[in-house]
Structures are given as C-alpha cells and as structure tokens.
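ARCHIVE CARD
Drawer: 12
Card no.: 0347
Subject: one protein chain, sequence and derived structure
Cross-reference: see card 0346
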Amino acid sequence: MLLASSTKQIDSNLTSLAAQIEQENPGLSVLAARQFRFAIRQTPLEVAISEPREFNVLEEFILRAGVEFDPAPTLQELADLLGLDQVFVKTAATNLVNLDILDVADHGRITIAPQGQDFVEKGAVSRSQIQSIYAISDPLNQTLTFGFDALPAESLNLPNLAELVSLEHQISDLAELSITEMQPLIQASGLGIHAPANGKIVSECAVIGDDMDIWQIVSVFVLLDAIANKTTIQARQGKQILETASNRLNELESQQKLLNELCKSTAEIPQPESETIPVPKTPKKSSKKKAKEIESGNK
C-alpha cells in the first residue's frame, strides 16, 4: 500500500510541488521530498582580453608614410606635410610605438617595427584590457562556469548534502589550467569576452584571490513509478529538474545512505501497488466442528 501523505517525508515548503508532480505524472508518487544545502566554489580571476582596433586616420597616414616613403620621413616632416602641429603627430606616433608597431629614432625619423608589419597589412592593431571575472565550480551539477558578478554569500539552515554523498569539484585547482583549457570554458559561459570569430581573445588568466564557498539550495525528491516498478531520485532547483545531479544521485542510491535519510527507514519504502483504502475484514464463520467443540464445553 502507498504511504499516506501524513507519513511521507515531505518538507512543508515542498508539498505543493510534490502534489503538482503527482498531478502532472499520474504514474508517479512522491514518497519523500527534502531540501538540502550544498556548496559551490567561487574563485576571483583576472583575464587579459585582446581585441582588434582599427587605426585612426592619422595613425594610418603615419604608417603608410613609413612603408611608402623612401627615405622614411621624420615626425616634423609629417607635421609640415599635413599642416598640423607636431604635438598631434608625435602623440599618434607614441601610441604606435607603445603598441610595438612603430620605431622613432632620436632625430624623429620613423620606421615600421619588425613585429608591426602584420598589423600594418591588416589595418588594425590588437589592444588589451584587463577584466575581473569569477569562476563558479558546481560539484553537484559537475559544471565550471564564469560570470562578471560575485554571488552573494548567505547562510542556510539546512542539512548538508555533502554529509550524505561525496561531492567533488570537477576541477580542483584553476591555477593549474592552461589558457587553452580555460578559453572554451569562458566562451561557453556567454560573457562575450572570448569570441575568436570577432577577434576577441582571452590571452591570459590569473587567480587573484581565495576560493569562497557559496551555499545553494537543492530539493531532492524520491519518486515511485508504479508502472515501471522503480524508485528514483530527482534533484531540482525550484521547478527546474537537474538532470546531471539527478543521474549522479541515482548512481549513488545503491549505497542506500541517501535513500535511507530521505525516507528515514528503508522499511517505509513500499512495493509498487495500487493505492487502496483499508476496509475492516469480515469475521470468518466458525466451522461446524468448532461449533460442536464449543457446545460440548458448555455442557
């Protein structure tokens, strides 16, 4: 016989969701539903992002002059040719020197730097900026994601799921990952800072602070499928089913530790039978032999 709702181990704040699950899935019965906390790990990082920048008109003119003029002009000659104050030409040239694209001799004559030839041909230069991000390692869902904002740290007065099942982070030490290993993970997080198709590349990544545990809530349901004659565990955050976490908890279910804790006792886990209402049994009629024995005893 299925457990009555009063004897099921269902947290009070999960009763409506448990009822919804049973209503939407007539073949399922929720035997237990409890909330736990588990820790995800947040790590602060700094990344260097390189992206292309087109040359402005003055920069492009200076570079073309360095390539096409023979001999190459001086900054003063360029200023005179353009009718500009030498200050503007010198400022633009200094930017190109800082980008390792242009060399300027002491007397002001310009030449294209060896490593700057490719940028001149492309008509753009790679500029770099520093961005702070956070790596989030989730041991329950086995994911490593990245975000711009730190997650809020809150205390939760719930049982720790890690005391019932082993929760290991997918990647133990971010500092040991190479940049080529980090790049696809950052790209998959959708931050837009690593987009090779647009020329944006995360070229460096460094851990800049200590790891912090951030508590999360997970709801764990024990479901009885009467048709399949099977008991399964399902993990949810809100109404969202966590497929990876559910599969993992079901793999560990054979150890019975989690299932026992959820249902309090394996003796309370019923066999899949149709739900019935107990009815008082009709007393059996005494046999004739029994009746005669009773009469003999009364004489």
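Annotation on reverse: Residues 293 and 299 are 10 Å apart (CA to CA). The domain at 56-122 is CATH 1.10.10.10 (Arc Repressor Mutant, subunit A).
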